[in-house]
Amino acid sequence: MAIVSAICNSFKEEILQGGHCLNASGSTAAGNTIKLALYSSNSATLSKSTTVYTAPSDATADPTNTYEVTTTSSGYTGGGNTLTNIDVTLDSDTAVCDFADTSWTSATFTARGCLLYNTTAITGFTTNRSVIVINFGGDKTVTSGTFTIEFPSAAASTAIIQLA
User: Alpha-carbon torsion 53, 55, 59, 62, what sign?
Assistant: First the structure.
C-alpha cells in the first residue's frame, strides 16, 4: 500500500469519453465540481489505478479505514475541499489546467498525499471519479494553523494537469 503520484488511468479514458469538464464554473461549458481529499498516511492505497474517491466508513476514526484525514477536532471536512477551477488554456502545444489554492483553517492534522476527484453526476459515469493522485514526498503537519495546498502555475512544464 502506498500513495503513488500519477494521473489516474480512468481519468485519461473518461476525458476522451466526455466524463470531465475542467473549465471554470462560469465558462461555457461550465466546469465540473472537483474536490481534493487529503490522506494521512502512506499506507493509503492510491495510484494510477484509483478509479473513484471512497469515503471512509467512519470519518472520525483515527486512522480511518481509507487513511483519509480524520474529521475529529482536526479542521478537516470529510471528502476534502471543493476546488475553484481556472479555465483550461493552451501553452504552446500543451493544454493545461489550474486550480486556485485551497486551505483548511484552524487545522491540526498530518497529510501525506491527496486525491483530486470529480463529484459532478454525468449520465453514463460514476460519481466521485478520480483525476490525479499526489504524494507530498513526506508527512506535512499543521497544528492549530492553516494547511494550504498551492497549485503550480498553468504552464506546459509546471501545470498540475497537462495534455501534450
Answer: negative
Distance CA 43, CA 63 (A): 10
Which residues are CB-neighbours of 97 under 8 A, at least 6 positions away?
Answer: 22, 85, 86, 88, 154, 159, 160, 161, 162
pTM, rounded to two decimals: 0.96
* Identity of residue 125: F
- Name residues of the chain where pLDDT drops below 70: none
Cβ(107)–Cβ(69) under 8 Å? no
All cell numbers assigned to 26: 462560469
Cβ(33)–Cβ(85) under 8 Å?
no
Confirm if 103 and 148 have CB atoms less than 8 A apart: yes
Across the chain, what does the average pLDDT equal?
95
Task: Dig out the grid coordinates for 41 from the structure.
Answer: 498516511
Backbone angles phi, psi at 5, to 5 degrees: -60, 130
Q: N- to C-terminal Cα distance for the chain?
A: 30
